[in-house]
Amino acid sequence: MQLLRAFVREDRGQDIVEYALLGALVGIASILTWQQVVVRVGIAYFTADSDVQNLSDCMPNPDGTGC
Predict the structure, then answer these.
(1) Could you tell me the pTM of the whole model?
(2) pLDDT confidence of residue 64
(3) Any idea what the Cα angle at residue 15 is, between residues 14 and 19, rounded to 5°?
(4) What does each C-alpha distance from 37 to 7, 33, 50 come to in angstroms?
(5) Cα(27)–Cα(34) distance, rounded to whole angstroms?
């Protein structure tokens, strides 16, 4: 019983656990945000309505001539 009480009262390492939880939260939020960005960019780029792929009808040459 004394060992259990000592374990409950012990607070060493508490900040490490808090930082680990905070890091996990930031990581999960970053992953979810990145997934949403990828989906939205994909929709904007590949949707037939947006026509992003055909904004330029002419491709200039490396020497500056062309269009």
Answers:
(1) 0.53
(2) 73
(3) 125
(4) 44, 6, 17
(5) 10
- The ranges assigned to domains in the chain are 16-48
Q: Is 39 helix (H, G, I), strand (E, B) or coil?
A: helix
Identity of the residue numbered 43:
I
Q: Give the span between the Cα atoms of 34 and 42, in whole angstroms.
A: 12
How many whole angstroms separate alpha carbon 7 and alpha carbon 12? Answer: 10
pLDDT of residue 56: 67
Query: How many Å apart are CA 14 and CA 32, to the nearest integer?
Result: 27
Segment 31-56, tens digit of pLDDT: 999 999 999 888 877 776 666 666 66
CA distances for 65 relative to 44, 55, 56, 60, 62, angstroms: 30, 19, 15, 6, 7
